[in-house]
Amino acid sequence: MSCANQPDGQGDEAVVMPRRKRVYQREKGVCQRCRTNKCLYIVRSVTMCRVLTSSGCFESAVRVSVVKSLHPPLLPADARSAQPFPRPTGANVLLALSAGAGSSALADLVHERYVGRDGEVRDTTRGQREAVWERGWAVHVDFSAVTGLPSREGLLRAFAEERGLRFVCVRAEDSFDPLLSRRVAALGGGTEEGSDDAEAVAVRLDEPDLPLLSTPSSSTATPLESLQALLTSLPPPSRPALLAHILDGLLGVVAHALPNISHLLVGETSTREAQRVIAGTATGRGWALPLELASSAPLPRAGRTVTRIKVMKNVSLKEAAIWCHGRRVETYNERRWDGTGGGARRDARGKGATASIEALTERFIAGLNVSHPSTVTTINKTGDKLCFVGEADGPLCPVCQLPVDASAIDWKARSALTSLPGKGDGVAAAPSADPLAPLLCYACLTMFTPLTAAQKDRPTAEPVPLPLWVGARVQERRHVPPSELRDQVAQFLIDDDDE
Ligand SMILES: [Zn+2]
Ligand SMILES: [Zn+2]
Which GO BP terms sit in this record (predicted)? Predict the structure, then answer.
């Protein structure tokens, strides 16, 4: 029955899957790479010897994986095949640290050879290479205020400073702090980025077209209160998606506020990447998913361009964890984004635990990875085949800052059971109706939509504040020539809109 029973190349039923390398019985205790040392780990069906020395098989395998994703975006287009060492960029680099194994291994791997230190002179005549980046910054986004986990700021500060990286810690609630970019710029010794403060906006989630309101400047809510208000008013399964956008948004703000940053390195492992493929597809992120998965992509923001590189894209969480264990680096992989926002509402069956698609996928992949070790690779290979078919410079979704699909509302109107603009009675627009819904991508529109159309699930009429970049993004979208914008949204416009 299985293809393995057929002789190779027989007729058109040729076996196309490469056969898996077997670990032969007689080699079982020996490293398959050097064939001398005793093996300790099995990584992707290959046995490897212990870490400890820099020429160890495991260590060199990880380094090769890192070079494969780190070098190509740093090399000129015509040099990609040769894999030379990248030339100095003359700029600085920002590393995202989460305290997880992926980002900790990334910082540990990259800091020595690629990032310069203050006052350090490299002797290139003795075979030392010039650092690719003049200085390294590390940023940590602290979610402890909403997740209830202990803050890892102190641990990461010590970890980063030991490796010659300057450390910045921002909190999730800083996404509502209009002074954030100025504060971060001041840390870097700069003073710019003052013009960033677009008007802070709030949204009414009870209306299907999500009208935007400007937040009164007299509002006394602290950033943390604003974040909690937004989280609480979203359906519980939507909250992890919002936190993921807040993470990306804050990394973008910090990357632009610090001086002369050319690259943002993130430690997303292949395991996390596989979760992104499955959860992203399930939550309706399919349109921009190829851009999310790309190993290098520009951060969406006007002005200076920063490129985000997923350095650990070819390294699994297991490998990263082994690396950190070998280097005695303390790591914490738990995010606990489920059940944030205070008092998760109980569902109809009285169960309190909220399971978001993100959390379910994480558990599913972790479980499957034990019994079927090639799961992650297979999912990622499928994800890598996805191509983005839209225009790269098309309009961006104000919330997730990725290109929007052309017909999110239209599509939802045909497929969803919840109330929508043009349906039902809830569209009596205020005089200054400024709907957010037509600007959103499908996934973000879903994120703001109540789970059911039942009255008890409807959010309160109280407007809730949105992260600070949403207002700026909405303004940017408004600057699109009106005729073009009207064409884009013509079919979604509400009749009594006087714009
Ligand atoms: Zn070996
Ligand atoms: Zn979006």
Answer: protein urmylation; tRNA wobble position uridine thiolation
- Residue 27, pLDDT score: 61
197 or 258, greater pLDDT: 258
Q: Would you say residue 3 lies in a domain?
A: no
CA of 445 to the centre of ligand 2 (A): 7
Q: Is a pLDDT exceeding 60 seen at residue 417? A: no
Parent domain of 231: 57-75+88-118+131-199+220-337+360-384
The pTM (predicted TM-score) of the whole model is: 0.83
Distance 24 CA to ligand 1 centre (A): 16
**Ranges 83-92, 166-175, 250-259: which has the least confidence:** 83-92
Number of domains in the chain: 1
Ligand at minimal distance from the CA of 285 is: 2
What one-letter code names the amino acid at 440? Answer: L
Answer yes or no: is 427 within a domain: no
What percent of the chain lies above the pLDDT cut of 90? 27
Instruction: Let me know if residue 25 belongs to a domain.
Output: no
Per-residue confidence (pLDDT) for residue 53, from 0 to 100: 63
Confidence of residue 431 (pLDDT cuts 50, 70, 90): very low
Q: How many Å lie between the centroid of ligand 2 and the Cα of residue 245?
A: 8
Residue 18 maps to a domain: no
- 281: domain CATH number is 3.40.50.620
